[in-house]
Amino acid sequence: MTSGVQTWDGLQGQPGYRWSMTIDDRTLAVLVAEWVGKRLADRPAQWAGDPTIRLEPRRYGLVYPEHIRLDVAWFKDQLRTYGIELATSIAYPSEITAQQSQVRVATARFRDADVTSVIGFFEPVYGVLFTTQATQDRYRPEWIVTGYAANDTMVIGKLMDQMQWSQAFGIGPIGVPVEGHVHNQDDVYRWGTGRAPEDAIVAGSLCNPMWLFLIGAQLAGPNLTPETFESGMFSWTPCCGRWQGHITLGNQAMSFGRHGILPWVDYNADEDITEKWWDLQTTGTDEINLTAPGVYWKLEGGRRYLPGEIASGEPAMFVKDGAVSSIPEYPPNETPPSYPPPNRA
C-alpha cells in the first residue's frame, strides 16, 4: 500500500498484491479526458497569457514522463470520443540534467504545433523547468492542471514560474483546506501524539496508506492472506469525497473493486476531482503548513466529481464568485468525532 504515484499497469499487473492510496495514471487520464472534452473542447483559449492565443480555438499538447508508462494512444482515444485530437505530445526524460535541455525542445515543439493549451502530466521539477523556459521563450499558453504527481497542490504551485502559472487551471484530487488545519492526517497525528509532526509531508504521505492497510487487514478476518485482504478491501463501503458529499483536503472519494465508475477492477483509492484555478495574489496556508501568497480557488464551493459526472460547458475559471480557496471550519458532515486521546505516556 503506497501513497506515491502508481501506474495502472503496475497495479493491474499484480492484482491484490499492489495497492495505492493516490490516483493512478489511467484513472486520472479518464477524468482529464472527460473534463477537457466536456468543459474546454475547441472553444477559444481565453485564459492564455498571450492575447493572440486567446483568440484561437484550443489546440492541445500533452507532456508526460517517459518513465511512467502513460498509455498515450489510449488517452488519445479517450479524447477522440469528445472530438479532440492532440496537436502534439512529448515525453520527458527522468534525469534532471537531461530535462534542462529537453524543455527547450518541448517549448519549441509546442509553439511550432500552435499549441494553445498544455495538458501537464508532469512532476514538480520538470514543471518548474518547463514553465521557466516558456517564459524565457515568451510562450504563454493555457496550463491545464491535471493533479498528476500532486501538481494541483499549493506547495507545488508556488514553485512554478508565476508568469506562466497565472494561466494555470484544471482539476485534481486535492480538496479545500480548512483554516487552522493542515489536513485530516495532521489532525489525527496531533490528537494521537499531542504535538505537530516533525515533517508534515511525511505525516500526510504515511497516515492514509496505513489506515487503508489496517481496514483491509481487519476486514480480511482471522486468516490474513492476499486473497482475504483483497476480499476485505472490495467489501469496504465507498467513502468520503463525492460518495458522501465531502469537499475538504484529505477527504477525497475512496473505494476499491468495482462500483460502476470505472471499466476495470480498481486497486487505487482516490477517484474524484475538484475544479480549480491558481491565484498568486491571495495568501493561504498550504499542505505542509507554510503560509505565503499563492492558492488554488476551487469552483462551486469545492464540488467534487467522479468519472462520468463532469458537466458540459465552460467552467467559471478565474472568477471568485462561488469559488473557495479555504473554509473557516469543517462542514457538519465532515466534522471529526471527539474521542479522548490515547494514553501518551
Description:
This protein has 345 residues and is of the alpha/beta class. It has one domain (1-323): Rossmann fold, CATH 3.40.50. The protein has eleven helices and eight strands. It has helices at 8-13, 25-40, 72-80, 96-112, 124-136, 154-157, 162-165, 184-193, 200-219, 226-235, 241-244, and strands at 60-65, 86-92, 117-120, 142-145, 168-172, 273-285, 291-298, 304-305. Strands 1, 2, 3, 4, 5, 6, 7 and 8 form an eight-stranded mixed β-sheet that branches.
Please give the structural blueprint.
Layout (H helix, E strand, L loop, with lengths): L7 H6 L11 H16 L19 E6 L6 H9 L5 E7 L3 H17 L4 E4 L3 H13 L5 E4 L8 H4 L4 H4 L2 E5 L11 H10 L6 H20 L6 H10 L5 H4 L28 E13 L5 E8 L5 E2 L40
Parallel strand pairs: 1-2, 1-3, 3-4, 4-5
Antiparallel strand pairs: 5-6, 6-7, 6-8
Helix pairs in contact: 2-3, 4-5, 8-9, 9-10
> Judging by the overall fold, what is the CATH architecture?
3-Layer(aba) Sandwich
The shape, in one word, is globular
- CATH third-tier fold name: Rossmann fold
Give the CATH superfamily.
Response regulator
How many domains is the backbone divided into? Answer: 1
Structural class by secondary-structure content: alpha/beta
Give a short account of the largest sheet: 8 strands, mixed
The CATH first-level class comes to: Alpha Beta
Mean pLDDT: 93
| Element pattern in H and E | HHEHEHEHEHHEHHHHEEE
Rg, Cα atoms, Å: 20 Å
Low confidence ranges: none
Distance between the termini: 30 Å
Q: What labels describe this entry?
A:
11 helices, eight-stranded mixed beta sheet, alpha/beta, Rossmann fold
